[in-house]
Design a protein that fits this description.
By secondary structure, the protein is of the alpha+beta class. It has helices at residues 8-23, 25-28, 70-75, 77-83, 118-130, 149-160, 164-176, 213-216, 218-223, 228-241, 244-247; strands spanning 51-54, 87-90, 94-95, 107-111, 134-137, 249-253, 260-266, 270-277, 283-286, 293-300, 308-311, 314-317, 322-328. The strands form four sheets. A six-stranded antiparallel sheet has the order 6-7-8-13-10-11. It has a three-stranded parallel sheet with strand order 1-2-5, covered by helices on one side. Strand 10 (293-300) and strand 11 form a beta hairpin. 20% of the residues are buried. Bound molecules: calcium ion. Calcium ion (CA) binds at residues 61, 63, 65, 67, 69. Pfam families: Alpha-amylase (PF00128), Malt_amylase_C (PF16657). Belongs to the glycosyl hydrolase 13 family. Keywords: Glycosidase, Hydrolase. Residues 53-327 form the Glycosyl hydrolase family 13 catalytic domain.
Length: 330
């Protein structure tokens, strides 16, 4: 602990949070220090888990202020469960001036009122746990907001030396370098009136919706067997069914190749061979000799038939093609 926290305040904060974890029956048996890092023979629960990170302001607004909130997360727990995830990871929900997406925390003991209240956090935990979902809160303890009392004290000392101008410039820089430019609020349905169901009534989302949201909303995705949503749901399900995909020995294949990322995972009974083209070009990839022969196609993102396939000297991969092959070991 002394390595992580060099200030008394940091140590006090960590000590105050620790009982929260230890008292939670879901994590009590799994998060105690002696289990962390032990993997030989006894797999850690989180290794097989699938985590879904939620950026709360863009997830779902329930009170019509245009910003996603904790009640919105509670409302969509069923959706997350359906997708097959095990853990939801919330972007910071603590009190913050939001110059850095909430990672600039002003008070670690308060929930940002934009997102809700402590009661909402309790309710979220209760309802998530009821569904067997775990909740991870993102707490950035190694830096704080310029509005945190620790920073303000430093600032006062700095200002006494005539440095206030520089601090204002730094604040502006942080605000302009926010990470939100590439993000959009999640469209849940086709409704134009409620901005794709992200918000309620005619409220305006804090960021503009994607122009094609009716096509890409979760409702459309869940009705389309060829959608990315369906593909991810199938991938998650596959990963849960086949332990070798999680625990099997990992071996990179052709690590020097510039376009293809390929690896095998094998547990002694079966081998999975994952081949991914990370470019938008057609790639003719030389199949490594030891991986030639007959494989079953388990899943692919471009609808290859899930049949046996004989891999010859070359594999032709389309743009952003991804395939998982499987065969018995031995
Ligand atoms: Ca809201």
């Amino acid at each position: 602990m002394s390595l992580l926290f060099r200030s008394d305040a940091g140590v006090r904060l960590f000590r105050s949070l620790l009982p929260l974890f230890q008292e939670d029956p879901l994590v009590k048996s799994t998060l105690v220090p002696e289990t962390i890092g032990r993997s030989e023979g006894k797999p850690n629960w989180w290794k097989a888990a699938v985590i879904y990170q939620i950026y709360v302001p863009s997830f779902k607004d329930t009170n019509g202020d245009g910003y996603g909130d904790l009640r919105g997360v509670i409302e969509k727990l069923g959706y997350l469960k359906e997708l097959g995830i095990n853990i939801i990871w919330l972007s910071p929900i603590f009190d913050s001036p939001m110059y850095d997406m909430g990672y600039d925390i002003a008070d670690y003991y308060k929930v940002n009122p934009v997102f809700g209240s402590m009661e909402d956090v309790d309710d979220l935990l209760r309802q998530a746990h009821k569904m067997g979902l775990r909740v991870v809160l993102d707490i950035a303890m190694n830096h704080t907001s310029v509005e945190h009392s620790w920073f303000k004290k430093t600032l006062e000392a700095f200002q006494a030396q005539g440095g206030s101008h520089k601090v204002e410039l730094a604040k502006k820089a942080i605000a302009s370098k926010g990470r939100d430019a590439a993000r959009i609020p999640i469209p849940w349905d086709r409704s134009q009136e409620t901005s794709g169901g992200f918000t309620v009534g005619a409220a305006k989302p804090w960021l503009p919706m994607h122009p094609n949201f009716t096509e890409f909303c979760t409702e459309s995705q869940r009705r389309n067997p060829a959608s990315i949503w369906m593909f991810y749901r199938d991938l998650i399900s596959l990963r849960k069914q086949h332990k070798a995909l999680v625990y099997g020995a990992y071996q990179l294949v052709d690590p020097q190749h510039e376009s293809v990322y390929a690896y095998t995972r094998t547990d002694g009974h079966e081998t999975y061979f994952v081949v991914l083209n990370f470019t938008d070009d057609l790639v003719e990839w030389d199949t490594p000799v030891e991986h030639r022969g007959v494989w079953s196609v388990v899943i692919s993102n471009f609808g290859r038939a899930t049949l046996d396939q004989e891999l010859g000297a070359k594999i032709e991969l389309g743009p952003f093609d991804g395939i998982i092959f499987r065969r018995e070991s031995g």
